[in-house]
Design a protein that fits this description.
Helix 5 links the parallel strand 4 and strand 5 (about 155-160). The protein has a single domain (about 1-305), classed as 3-Layer(aba) Sandwich (Rossmann fold), CATH 3.40.50.720. With about 300 residues, the protein is an alpha/beta fold. A six-stranded parallel β-sheet has the order 2-1-3-4-5-9, with helices on both faces. Helix content is about 40%, strand content about 15%.
Length: about 300
């Protein structure tokens, strides 16, 4: 199977490439952003006509934490929507019969019933701090679903919960919560600071998934003849931001005080997903949170020492 992995340099795409490259049944086709701008409709059309992949794993996205999403909602909406529209339609036009779209559980309503099932989609208002990104991801999964319904192609989607792992972005302000916390605690430890400020009250509950486990879910569903239209992917492990911050501090070895800045937004109060569909086809997570945090910090230290830290 010749597979085009879109966004192979990102955290998710690189994990998918690592896993699929170990299996001789998959022939990988990758392009950097310089080689293929997914926001350029003409370029995307020409790529699919020339390369004719058997399948697409769409990991490409503009991503960021709560600050980036709330500061640049227009860019998150525009770029992610245009990339999805170009890729899905061009893939179908060129005869691709299998397309796996990677989204996010931020697509669900802010106050969705917990655990969140796939049927909760579009049943309530979105979390405003990442509304632009969520709308773009809903567009992508709906395109796959509707093209599958109308044309009979195997276009389907996975909606992972909050991801972390190798290749994450460790920017001190625009990263997701886990890399952001690890970076701040590390910098505070090195500087000998006595306290670190964490955004929000610390009360929201979150579920986190190690990115290699998502890659395993991608491989699993790629091999299904009739995969679910949309399936959540999560660890089944829930933690408060307060407890997560304490775990990150312990992993890093920061022994100072944690201060929670309640003037900053909390985001969605709780986001815990129902994963019965993906577990029903044989997938299970393997890396639990404490182990994953330790692996991330070890990777952070290695990349820092080599000057290769993504930030």
């Amino acid at each position: 199977m010749k597979v085009f992995v879109a966004g192979h340099r990102g955290m998710v795409g690189s994990a998918v490439v690592r896993l699929l490259s170990e299996d001789p049944r998959f022939e990988l086709n990758i392009r950097s952003r310089d080689q293929l701008d997914l926001t350029n409709q003409s370029a995307v059309e020409k790529f699919f006509v020339a390369e004719k992949p058997d399948a697409v794993v769409f990991c490409a996205a503009r991503v960021g934490g709560i600050l980036a999403n709330s500061t640049f909602p227009a860019e998150f909406l525009y770029e992610n929507t245009v990339m999805a529209i170009n890729a899905v339609h061009s893939a179908w036009q060129s005869g691709v019969t299998r397309f796996l779209y990677l989204g996010s559980t931020c697509i669900y309503p802010r106050l969705a019933a917990q655990p969140i099932s796939e049927s909760s989609l579009m049943t309530g208002s979105l979390e405003q701090t990442n509304e632009g990104y969520a709308i773009a991801k809903i567009t992508g999964l709906k395109m796959c679903s509707l093209y599958r319904r109308q044309y009979g192609v195997c276009f389907h989607s996975l909606m992972p919960t909050n991801l972390y792992g190798p290749g994450d972005n460790y920017h001190s302000e625009n990263s997701h919560v886990i890399p952001g916390l690890l970076r701040r605690f590390h910098d505070a430890k090195v500087a000998g600071l006595s306290e670190v400020t964490v955004w929000g009250s610390g009360n929201p509950l979150r579920e986190f998934l190690y990115v290699d486990d998502l890659a395993a879910a991608v491989k699993c569903t790629l091999q299904l003849e009739d995969p679910p239209d949309v399936a959540n992917v999560g660890s089944g492990e829930e933690v408060s931001i307060r407890d997560l911050a304490a775990m990150c501090a312990a992993v890093v070895g920061f022994e100072g005080r944690l201060v929670f800045d309640t003037s900053k937004p909390d985001g969605t109060p709780r986001k815990f997903c129902d994963t019965q569909l993906i577990r029903g086809v044989g997938w299970r997570p393997r890396v639990m949170l404490r182990e994953g945090l330790a692996l991330c910090y070890q990777q952070f230290l290695r990349e820092s020492s080599l000057g290769a830290l993504r930030s």
